[in-house]
Amino acid sequence: MSVLVELCLLLNITEANVGIGLSGREGNQAVLASDFALAQFSFLERLLLVHGRWSYIRSCKFVRYFFYKNFAFTLCQLMYAFHSGFSAQVLIALSVYREVALICSICCLVIESLLC
Description:
The protein is mainly alpha-helical. It folds into two domains: about 1-40, no CATH class; about 45-115, no CATH class. The chain is about 70% helix and about 5% strand. The protein has helices spanning about 1-15, 30-35, 45-85, 95-115, and strands at about 20, 35-40. Strands 1-2 form a two-stranded parallel sheet. The model has no long low-confidence stretch (mean pLDDT about 75).
């Protein structure tokens, strides 16, 4: 029975995004297959709070860059539409738009890393 439980734990840990193993009387197989090893179950709270906060901060930065990039491109399109008299002429071709979006995202990441 315990071999079956250990096998299920190992499969769950290897399939998860982040595996956390607890070392104890059952053996160290879960610890060896995990990303993080804990000696006590009470240490799990701090691990979840710290990594959860870091994940939240990364998600907030991503959303902020996404809105900033789309606002910048939309503002450029709107200004060009006023300039061209709303003639439906395209300011940036779709292939160029993809390249500019990538460059803008990289520049925003570099600027943010320099400021923090």
